[in-house]
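Tutorial, part two.
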Amino acid sequence: MISTNSRRGRAALMAGHCVGMVDLVALPVWVGTLISAYRFDPQQAGLMATLFLAGAVLASLLLAPRFNRLNGRLVATLGFGAAALGFGIASTTRDFATLAALHAYAGIAAGAALSVTHGTIARSANPHRLFAIVGIALGVFAIAFLGATPPLVAAAGGPALFRVFAGVMAVGAVLAALAFPVPDALGEGHARGGAPAGPLSRAVWFGVAGVACMGLVQSMTFSFLERVGSDRGFSQQAVTGVLIALGIVNLFPSALAALLEKRWSARRVLLVGPVLQALLVLVIMNSPTFAPYAAAAAVFAAVMIFTHTFGFGTLARLDPSGRALAATPAMLMFGAAIGPILGGTLVKTLGYGSLGLAALVIDLLAVFTFSRIPQQTGAALPVGVPA
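Running the prediction step on this input gives:
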């Protein structure tokens, strides 16, 4: 039996997080490729990504309440394997309806696998630290993906992107089959510490809503990060360099969040994070020159990663059963699913600047929901210490 504290178990969880959260890394290349290589308009391209994310939300919502009764290894292996098959088929067609259906199918499959991955992380001895570790892995993955995929797509064409996705999902399936760990649990339907898992508190639901709002802003902006640079006349080499820099920067927020777990108030981080996110979107979408765009874009995803790490630890303390965090794909991707189609519609009708105003409104809502989390539960407490 492989535990979450073993090297093999952590490696499988790291891979599952990277593979399942591929949208957090790939959205600019994904939407940009659908526009440039497949000739879809921004709204259509955004809809494709939205269908994938909506599928992930649906799978997570269905599986999260049943997390304690699921075989995590089986679900992760079959989920990532099915997603690999879907993207493999997607690489063989250019038909809009077929691609749309395959995006939804792959999202459901990957979302199921990611749901059990995050639920298992939540049931580890220190969810904040383990989520930070898998976040660091995502940063490494981002550098490799953003450095290699755009040139590959430029050389081999749009279908190469879906072949990359298929390969990534297949790796996740193999590692899940070999080493996916069992959660640190004391019995079905019981929380860590042995207490029966009751209804989720209002504080948990406010935390979930806040993460969903930040996920919406993240995906709405990230989907058009590459296109806004290209449409402003910045060279492809310069924009690719920004994406690589973003990947490098993403190595640090999770590690920093782990170091600051006991030093910074999680509640304060949750209140400040959305404000910084909105300010960065305003710069990215309104800067006519390259330097401000590049600086804001390079750190944009890092704000979400850092803030969400503290949010993950907070929700793990509020709900030790792991059910709320098994729904992490739903809380992230509910907002993220709306983001690409909302962003595409705003860009098509009102221009890129409208994304900044939308981000400001949504992130203010996130600040409000996070403010409803009581101060004592937002503090960074060791696992097992009552909030």
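DSSP finds 17 helices and no strands in the chain. In part three we will examine how such features are distributed along the chain.
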